[in-house]
Amino acid sequence: MLERLSIGEHVQGVRVAGLLDLDPLVVSRWLCGEDMRGIYQAIVLHDCVLDGIDLEGRTFYEMVELVGCRVAAAHFAQAYFYSILIIEDCIFEGEFHGRGIQSDGRMVVHNTVFAGWAEFGDVSLRGRVDLVDVSFSGGTNLLHVLADSSQERLGREIRLGGCGFRASDVPEGLDVARLGIVPLVEGNPRGAEG
Predict the structure, then answer these.
(1) Is the pLDDT of residue 194 over 50?
(2) What is the pLDDT of residues 147-165, one digit of tens each?
(3) pLDDT tens-place string over residues 102-146
(4) By the 8 A CB rule, do 16 and 49 touch?
(5) How far apart are CA 166 and CA 48, in angstroms?
(6) DSSP assignment, residue 171?
(7) pLDDT score for 2
């Protein structure tokens, strides 16, 4: 699988036992005396079942796309996305470690379930962010982080259409109706109250 990813091929319908570690794809490129160490090819995974994926601490200069994947453990902490990050129709079954994610490009998360705790402390999202029909049934600190660091961008450059959050994960005073936030019904990771 790493060989296919290393030449920029899309990977589809693969089951990966153990942790998918992308470290072998990291290369150093020197630009103006600076080591621009990172992954320089697109990472595209469709309809894969992954015991774990490790993007932690890596820099991605091209698109990263996960579509229709089931992921047991996701390690995205300190990952830096220069281009676009797309996560669509995925289920993250366990914890999502996203502390310190940085994104200069666009981030799109659509129709995805975070069944375990989703950690987003210290994220830096400088590009447009679209979270549409995303369920955080396992809980998250995302809204608290965004309310503290990006309040003025919420609803404009950071869009949360139809996203489900536990009531305890919504900061007091946040205008949930304006932002498109839907309260989750206990026992239904995609359903809203009412």
Answers:
(1) no
(2) 888 777 887 889 999 999 9
(3) 999 999 999 999 999 999 999 999 999 999 999 999 999 999 999
(4) yes
(5) 28
(6) P
(7) 83
**Which burial class, exposed, middle or buried, applies to 184 when counting CB atoms under 10 A from its CB (0-12, 13-18, 19+)?**
buried
Pair 108, 87: CB distance under 8 Å: yes
**In the structure encoding, which two tokens stand for residue 168, read together?**
């305890």
Q: Which residues pair with 65 in a beta bridge?
A: 44, 86
8 Å CB contact between 14 and 50: no
pTM of the model: 0.90
CA quadruple 13, 37, 52, 187: dihedral positive or negative?
A: negative
Would you call 50 helix, strand, or coil by DSSP? strand
Q: How far is CA 92 from CA 81, 99, 113, 124, 148, in A?
A: 19, 16, 6, 21, 25
For residues 78-103, average pLDDT: 97
pLDDT surpassing 50 at residue 20:
yes
Helical spans, DSSP H, in 7-61: none
Burial bucket for residue 137 (CB in 10 Å: 0-12, 13-18, 19+): buried
Q: How many Cα atoms within 13 Å fall on the side-chain side of residue 110?
A: 11
Q: Which residues contact 162 (CB under 8 A, 6 or more apart)?
A: 132, 133, 134, 180, 182
Q: Kindly tell me if the per-residue pLDDT of 49 is higher than 50.
A: yes
Q: Which amino acid is at 124?
A: S
Q: Say how far apart CA 175 and CA 120 lie, in whole Å.
A: 20
